[in-house]
Design brief:
The chain has ten helices and three strands. It is mainly α.
């Protein structure tokens, strides 16, 4: 209960008297709302200093364990400059040799992303705790998904090369598994943030589970899902360019050949071509995201 001791005064703020549940009177000066007493205290400087010290200690320990030092970087700088001099100017005539391999790389990334996205949809639905309420379902599926995401794409490519032999097929299989893990992870995290209002409304009128997913979940998640697929495709184009180092086809084979024969001007041509393709795909996917989101 608030009591104004001077009800006739309207020009000057009056002191406020609060009567709490214990019948104790609390008198606050004019303009004091009491909010400052509940305001959290700012962290002390000691905490910031300790955090900075721990970070510096971790950096120093990592540098010692990896035998990295500024002196070695300075000592190796002349070799880096020699390598750059050998890479420029790039050998422009080598462009015709690598166009088919680059197209193969893009096809590998496209097929791997598409198949991975298709496989990721049911797994993401099973991983979302708000759609799959039983912990006996979503927890084991999440564990298997994390297990898949643990394996690097280069190791996946090497495994599939041992199974299927050299060529683009092992690369497509590796990118499919990689895309599946990444898209499923991002999608189920987005699914857990959707508005449950439409789902509850559809459940109250007797909608089937498939109908709830098609009309209550898909409209809320489809734009984010397409964005995740485009993002994964960008990553796969870069990854597919390296998978050829283990015999999985694509432009990576030419990286291995030119570096092995110390033909750095040809390697520079491959790098510039790959950069142009990646920038073009990034620009196109950005425009698509702007249309969708």
């Amino acid at each position: 209960m608030n009591v104004n001791p001077n009800p006739h005064s309207s020009n000057e703020p009056a002191a406020t008297i609060n009567v709490n549940a214990d019948a104790k009177l609390e008198v606050h000066p004019p303009g004091d709302t009491g909010l400052h007493r509940n305001r959290p205290q700012a962290p002390g400087k000691l905490k910031s200093y300790l955090t900075a010290a721990i970070v510096l200690l971790l950096l120093w320990g990592s540098a010692v364990d990896t035998e990295a030092s500024l002196g070695k970087l300075i000592q190796g700088s002349p070799n880096m400059l020699d390598l750059l001099r050998e890479m420029f100017p790039p050998k422009w005539s080598y462009f015709d040799n690598i166009v088919p391999a680059m197209l193969e790389t893009i096809r590998m990334a496209l097929i791997g992303t598409t198949f991975g996205a298709i496989l990721a949809v049911p797994v993401a639905l099973l991983c979302a705790s708000n759609l799959s309420r039983s912990a006996w379902i979503h927890q084991p599926v999440r564990f298997l998904l994390n297990l898949v995401r643990t394996i690097p794409d280069l190791l996946l490519a090497a495994i599939f090369v041992a199974i299927f032999g050299l060529g683009p097929l092992p690369g497509m299989m590796a990118l499919t598994v990689f895309s599946f893990g990444l898209i499923a992870k991002l999608t189920y995290e987005a699914l857990e943030t959707i508005d449950r209002g439409p789902l509850e409304a559809m459940t109250s009128v007797g909608a089937a589970p498939v109908q709830r997913i098609l009309f209550g979940v898909v409209p809320q998640i489809q734009a984010h899902f397409i964005s995740y697929v485009l993002y994964t495709f960008e990553i796969n184009v870069r990854a597919a360019a390296v998978l050829g180092l283990v015999g999985a086809g694509g432009i990576g084979h030419y990286y291995e050949v030119t570096l092995g024969f110390l033909e750095y001007d040809k390697t520079c041509m491959i790098i510039l071509f790959t950069l142009a393709v990646v920038l073009l795909i990034d620009y196109a996917s950005t425009k698509l995201r702007e249309k969708l989101l």
